[in-house]
Amino acid sequence: MIILKIAFRNIFRHKKRSALTGLMMAGGCALFALSIGMVDGGYGNLIDMFTRDHTGHIQVHKKGYLDKPSIYSTIDNPDSVGKKIQSVAHVQSWAPRVYTPALAFAGKKTTNVRVVGIDPIREARTTRIKYKVDIGRFISEAPLNEAVISDRLARLLKIDLNGEIALITQGADGSIANELFTVVGITGKSGETSGTSTCYMHIKTAQDFLSLGGGVHEIAVVLTDQALTMKTVGLIKSALQDPSLEVDPWQVVESQFYRAMKADIKGSWYTIVIFTIIIAVGVLNTVLMIILERTREFGVLKALGTRPLQIFMLIVYETVFLAVLSIIIGTAVGMSANWWFHEYGITLANPIEYGGYFFDTITAKITLRSLVLPAMIIFGTALIVSIWPAIRAARIIPVKAMRSN
Amino acid sequence: MSEAVIEIQGVSKIYRADEVEVHAVRSLNLTINAGEFTAIAGPSGSGKTTLLNVMSGLDTPTAGRVLLAGKYISEMKGSELSDFRRDHIGFIFQSYNLIPVLTVKENIEYIMLLQGIGEDERRDRVASILKRVGLEGMEGRLPKQLSGGQQQRVAVARAMVSRPDIILADEPTANLDSHTGASLLDMMRELNEKSGMTFVFSTHDNMIMQRARRLVLLKDGEIDRDEVRG
Ligand SMILES: Nc1ncnc2c1ncn2[C@@H]1O[C@H](COP(=O)(O)OP(=O)(O)OP(=O)(O)O)[C@@H](O)[C@H]1O
Ligand SMILES: [Mg+2]
């Protein structure tokens, strides 16, 4: 206990140096807390925006559809599959979809278009497609020849609300499908659909148009929390018990987006590693300076009968005490910053684009790991860095030490 | 005669530096008995410090052995040696060497704390030793708030309070002016007479060596004279 007391008081012996070393550790701790809070908050937002835009957290397809989307790869009993999905824990809702490429005509203009058949009621519960309609309205609940088109498609075809659009494609029965639709709504400039030519219609209309019967190409599932995605994939698989179906998390469906995001997060970790090394070197320098300055003192302590292990602990305690003080301050600052950025966010002068989405504010998230991880990193660094100098101090030979100075 | 506290048996210490051998202590035999107040005197370089360091186990002899409290301290290592020193030897250093962050009271208690002596016992012992070294009322001060003479008195108290078998002091008065040094020595001798504590100290100051009851004079690492006085 006397060793603890000496260690604690030694911190206040060189106030300036302790303050500087402590400031470095506290600053690192605060910075780590904030950057982890930002990663968790920022990417949490991003994932949420991305998945709720249209992808959903989990998608179910006929086996092979993701690799080679074919009009023939259909889930033929979507209602019973959907019912089973809905019974799985944490599932919020599901929505069936039909996809096909088509040729679109309006007046003298022609372009390629992606036709998406959706269930307006289920889709509204599952994704934001309904709320992206900026001009006009969403498709009716009854299956009519109505279309909601993306902003890009509207501009390419120079078509406006209530305009007529002709779609030509091949149906599942091999016949040429060819029909006229009325534009009832145009989706806005934000989100994934802004960059593509997309035409939404009622799923029944699309099934009839493509002679698909009751089949659908995709079932998108949204969960109550995106963090539960991986776990729920397994649960859905075992609920379905159907080897002809494929259940994939958004990380697989949108693997390109996921890879880019992971690379970004990795970058944040590299920053933390580099700062940790800088802090480690700084702390090591301080501890070595302490050993050098107090060689004589350690020699005296040893001569008086202090055990080598007690001298070792004295150095470790001193470092760890300073680290703990720094962690308390650093965590308080870091978490206050996290809270502030959680409440108010950082507003960007120039919105950044990420995977087709525009972000004008980035918010932090207060998570357990943003609280615990920085503290652990700083504590661990201080502990590890103190070991070698502590061994040196413990091995000091009193006669030599007391001759020095 | 009274019983031996420390027996130095044929101890030699040879320092080797750059091919040159220095015989700091040469086949020396010396027995210190309980209750003695012994000065080890001699000119600079005569081997006083070397002899004291070998006696305390701070240095190992090149040849010979040192027997203390029935054990050969010259053959101990590590924690065993630390604990043995803590329990059997008191130290007084030339430059006081108090622990700067501890108060007078805490410095005096330090060894007792390492020994695990209970609080009541510690309090009694500290109170009594403070009175005997004339530092009552200063227990809350830090070393830097004391004069050199006062600091050395604390060092004497620290060395005595754990009741070791022997107190070794290498030039305890060298950093003090002659008057303060003399009065410190007088105090040490009084403690020796009243408590029977065994003291061995080194000095090259004539005034100081006159105060010893036994005077061992070293010359080139050998005992030149060994006389018992009044
Ligand atoms: N670590 C060492 N390495 C080499 N030689 C040493 C070492 N320590 C002491 N000596 C030599 O051993 C001899 C005895 O030294 P010691 O310090 O014991 O003398 P001393 O009587 O204490 O002298 P002083 O009165 O100056 O303190 C001297 O010649 C000294 O130079
Ligand atoms: Mg000397």
Question: Secondary-structure blueprint of this entry?
Answer:
The complex is a heterodimer of chains A (405) and B (230).
Chain A: H1 2-11, H2 15-55, E1 58-62, H3 78-86, E2 91-106, E3 109-118, H4 120-126, E4 133-136, E5 146-149, H5 151-157, E6 164-170, E7 176-187, E8 198-202, H6 203-209, E9 218-223, H7 229-240, E10 245-249, H8 250-253, H9 255-293, H10 295-303, H11 308-343, E11 346-354, E12 357-362, H12 368-394, H13 398-403
Helix pairs in contact in A: 1-11, 2-9, 2-11, 2-12, 9-12, 11-12
Chain B: E1 4-17, E2 20-33, E3 37-41, H1 48-56, E4 63-68, E5 71-72, H2 78-88, E6 89-92, H3 104-115, H4 119-132, H5 148-161, E7 166-170, H6 178-195, E8 199-203, H7 206-209, E9 214-219, E10 222-228
Parallel strand pairs in B: 3-8, 3-9, 6-7, 7-8
Antiparallel strand pairs in B: 1-2, 1-4, 4-5, 9-10
Helix pairs in contact in B: 3-5, 4-5, 5-6
The site of magnesium ion has 3 residues of chain B, from α1.
Short description:
With 405 residues, chain A is of the alpha+beta class. Chain A has 13 helices and 12 strands. Helices cover 53% and strands 22% of the residues of chain A.
Distance between the termini of chain B: 16 Å
Number of helices of chain B: 7
Number of discrete domains of chain A = 2
First-residue to last-residue Cα separation of chain A: 28 Å
From the spread of the alpha carbons, the general shape of chain B counts as globular
Low-pLDDT segments of chain B: none
User: Strand portion of chain B, in percent?
Assistant: 25-35%
CATH class of chain B: Alpha Beta
> Major sheet of chain A: size, sense and barrel closure?
6 strands, mixed, barrel
